[in-house]
Amino acid sequence: MIVSGQGARMTDADGNRYIDYVLSWGPLMLGHCAPEVVEAVIEAAHKGTSFGASTPAEADLAEQVIEAFPSMEKVRFVSSGTEATMSAIRLARAATSRKYIVKFEGCYHGHSDALLVKAGSGVATFGIPGSAGVPEEFVKFTLALPYNNVAALEEAFAKFKDQIACVIIEPVVGNMGCVPPKPGYLEAVRSLTAREGSLLIFDEVMTGFRVSYGGAQELYNIKPDLTTLGKVIGGGLPVGAYGGPATLMNQISPLGPVYQAGTLSGNPLAMAAGLAMLKTLGTGRKTIYPALNALAGKLVAGVSEAARANGIAITSNQVGSMFTWFFTDHEVFDWDTAAPCNTELFGRFHRGMLDAGVWLPPSQFEAAFLSTAHTATDIDDTIAAARAVFAGIHG
Ligand SMILES: *Cc1c(COP(=O)(O)O)cnc(C)c1O
Q: 35-283 has which CATH code?
């Protein structure tokens, strides 16, 4: 159990301190208790925690999001990434009058029924096909295809001609470990969906404001039809969002027939936290992202070298400040190449690092993150810890 966090560090109930590379599974770009975020939340709390009506903070955060993501003309706030993807899919089905959806093996889009098919994150970690409690009838319109495979998508579009409402994708996967798109893959997904009249949903819950300020769509210069956000935009409080062109977003209630609502959506505390975080990231984006990504590169390379020096095969994937060390000697580009990694070795590495005061994601199939609170010394200490752990495994 964790009792507190400060900057790049967390303290557990026994008083052990850890350098944190999980960062609440991604949101904490500025580390724990960033002063501007804490102050914004306190100030908002003094004004009232919820009204069931819009507040200026909600409009301010919306503007900040739209400015960073030009593909989003309008944005709707919800309270989690799960709600964002679930709602975006409902909208896509309504807008296209089609039933089928395409997702990719190893991608995780939250825990709504239709999306718990060959999912990543915890579902991948526990090696289960989906989840108990989801009747197969509820997922019969979900097609799960291999990631980074254009031919498989072509085939699905041929087989289910004019029936696929949308393709939802993590433009950089974080939920089977970090898996980048191959060069040209996202471009192909974009042009195929456009050709087939199917909407493209970029699930940027993890990548938004993380791999670059404007997310993966800015990094790879691809314009999806709908975008889902979460994690970083909440500054460590519960927020999700989805958005796109007004023609689509106006189909949502109360303007249109697609129902979606939330008692605590746009919650003032969450909006204040998100706004404070995005302001800092937005103002400093020209220096923050390059510095963070370079530091992540140093960490990724240092740990990989430490493994190889001890005869341990490792493949490291990194995009910006998202990264994974896969215990394998082959390239990892989809679920079938991620799954056979040596999870027993991963477990020994993870436990060794934990004992050395380094908190890494407790699964081979989850990405690690860096925050602006991590220092070059933290990185050096982490690499030194890895060297000792690998030497122990080797010996
Ligand atoms: C975390 C995550 C979600 C789910 O968000 P929650 O806030 O946990 O519901 C959805 N999609 C992606 C890509 C995620 O990383």
A: 3.40.640.10
